[in-house]
């Protein structure tokens, strides 16, 4: 009698990068009481789930969306269907839908959850070597600027023992110069939100120079002042002061909640706690690349246990469609209060949808970035 392999991981590692879903489907049908399998990936706007194995089948319904949003397995006992989130380090990819021939026990659910986790990790690694998965999540063609921006992003969400983090760009298919970046190392989270000059591919190229300069400095062990100064020098050497990048750089101590900040332009930060929302007051310095040899200084502010930090570009806080008051003066605060019970992955979508409603059908004048961080450290 054949013995079930201990893990699907070895099969995934030996499979072509574009065939991972088929490998998992075959593994599940062979070794588990499974009649059907479908992999659903989230589109770029995080608003719908699209089938991969059978692209002609329906998109994910209410149960699949609930699984994706809650990041919890869902069992539909009536149909013996099991829905499992596909997530790596908090970055939500989609949902694995499994139809079973028997009611799942807790042991079976645990085994299938492990398969889903291994598939998610494989999908994230394989994404660099095949276009198959990106073709599914794109529901229309990206502009060249948006292509550059999406390739530059670190991911759409990230989580650890002490934090949950998510970001979103709007519009997804025709971005300009707004961007975010993050990295976590040794209990320190570096977060940047940028707003580059101009529009179209020139704005995207400008942002690409700034982001990669900051990454180059960060990966060499530089602090956020050195990151800002290297990026400013790189932008100035390329554009001679004609274009610049408004940037907010934050370095967050995940053990103590202290944040060091370099405020070099228009992105704004707000902190919410128990329903109260306050703007973070920082002394604004020159945008990156405005002058040669620009020098920057850090400022500090403190997060308390349970605080939510929201960072937005000027496409959010300064949006004033049809001569209305800026969205940041009232609409943003209202939207942020609605997110009180939502995790950051859902909160950024809530704020984006409220921003769309604020434009009341008119086309935005600027793209928008929203990044949401929850600091989870419990008070002593």
Structure description:
- This protein has 380 residues and is an alpha+beta fold.
- It folds into two domains: 9-135, Beta-Lactamase (2-Layer Sandwich), CATH 3.30.450; 142-375, PPM-type phosphatase domain (Phosphatase 2c, domain 1, 4-Layer Sandwich).
- The protein has eleven helices and 16 strands.
- The strands form three sheets. The chain has a six-stranded antiparallel β-sheet with strand order 6-7-16-15-12-13. A five-stranded antiparallel β-sheet has the order 2-1-5-4-3, with helices on both faces.
- Strand 6 (157-159) and strand 7 form a beta hairpin.
- Helix 2 (20-31) packs antiparallel against helix 4, helix 7 packs antiparallel against helix 8 (224-239) and helix 10 packs antiparallel against helix 11.
- The protein is globular.
- The model has no long low-confidence stretch (mean pLDDT 93).
- Residues 160-375 form the PPM-type phosphatase domain.
- InterPro entries: Bact_Sigma-Reg (IPR052016), PPM-type-like_dom_sf (IPR036457), PPM-type_phosphatase-like_dom (IPR001932).
- It holds the Pfam family SpoIIE.
- This is Serine/threonine-protein phosphatase.
- It comes from Paractinoplanes ovalisporus.
